[in-house]
Automatic annotation (TrEMBL), chains A, B:
Keywords: Cytoplasm, Glycosyltransferase, Purine salvage, Transferase. It catalyses: XMP + diphosphate = xanthine + 5-phospho-alpha-D-ribose 1-diphosphate. Its EC number is 2.4.2.22. It comes from Metapseudomonas lalkuanensis. NCBIfam families: PRK09219.1, XPRTase. Residues 33-157 form the Phosphoribosyltransferase domain. It is found in: Cytoplasm. Homodimer. GO terms for molecular function: xanthine phosphoribosyltransferase activity. 5-phospho-alpha-D-ribose 1-diphosphate binds at residues 128-132. This is Xanthine phosphoribosyltransferase. Xanthine binds at residues 20, 27, 156. The gene is xpt.
Length: 190, 190
């Protein structure tokens, strides 16, 4: 998606060979017009798949997910993150380990919002090692629902997330695929 | 805003005389079409005020804020919440006490995204005692920026938030004003 790549080139900050900071337009300050274009692009790629719900994770997944939900005409659920959480009856719960923060957190979705009849599109801002996406898929499967695919705003293609998810048969659509952050420069796949 | 009140009547759950649960369409599952209408209504009420930025707080403020930002053509910044936070040079920081959770948390905005030239619309999902809005205003004032007004999706008018903020001269636009949650029933102002 060219508008997104352009924005990454102009406003993304390469902090290291692993870390791309996009807090100017995606995960702290948000560019609503770009998010609308992102939502439109997700809808184009996944339309006709019988999607009934979108699931994302707070906080940075919400803006792209809501814009995609608007275009596809489906509700969006955002999983909540907890540092610790007492088990509750009405919650679906999974764990996700963050390499960036070196902490494990619990994510949860209210069981009443997902059913076995749902066909779910997972949306997230970043795909790196795939742990967050895997935890969201775990929640969806606990509900007995199907995973229609995974929509990612920015994929760090030099990490193992895509390979991991593809090996399990999931369709992944990433709107910008970063091949490398070497030499302080963003290089895209293709 | 009638569509919002209708949704609250149909899908809001009165948990107590103090607590209205709206996780079916606002703060866990999100109705994107309703959020678009909410954003449109905020834009109608605040257009022509020279607003340059919207500031909200993660996670439930993001969807209505991004839709308002799309209509007004301005960026949205969401303040991040931390349980604890080491002081950092480039962050504006404030504290907010949650009566619901009985915990104090720290909220922060990157200083580089707000300047003294900004005229800021504050948006949040709920107004109760006004502590979250006050903390956001504190961050905006630390940046030397102006507060154009406060847009609230659901106001609990039986709590002191509106009076507190009005006494300090702020304009508040709430799209649904709840007068009472007595007898398990939502009663709106007017």
């Amino acid at each position: 998606m060219e508008a997104l790549k352009q924005k990454i080139r102009e406003e993304g900050i390469v902090l290291s060979e692993q870390v791309l900071k996009v807090d100017a337009f995606l995960n702290h300050q948000i560019d609503p017009r770009l998010m609308q274009q992102v939502g439109h692009e997700f809808a184009e790629r996944f339309k006709g798949q019988g999607i009934t719900k979108i699931v994302t994770i707070e906080a940075s997944g919400i803006a792209p997910a809501v814009m995609a939900g608007l275009e596809l005409g489906v509700p969006v659920i955002f999983a909540r993150k907890f540092q610790s959480l007492t088990l509750k009856n009405d919650l679906l719960i999974s764990k996700v380990f963050s390499f960036t923060k070196q902490t494990e957190s619990t994510i949860a979705i209210s069981a009443k919002h997902l059913t076995a009849a749902d066909n779910v599109l997972v949306i997230d801002d970043f795909l790196a090692n795939g742990h967050a996406a895997k935890a969201l898929i775990d929640l969806i499967q606990q509900a007995g629902a199907s995973v229609a695919g995974i929509g990612i705003v920015i994929e760090k293609s030099f990490q193992e997330g895509r390979a991991l998810l593809q090996s399990e048969g999931y369709r992944i659509e990433s709107l910008a695929r970063v091949a490398s952050l070497a030499d302080g420069k963003v290089t895209f796949v293709d």
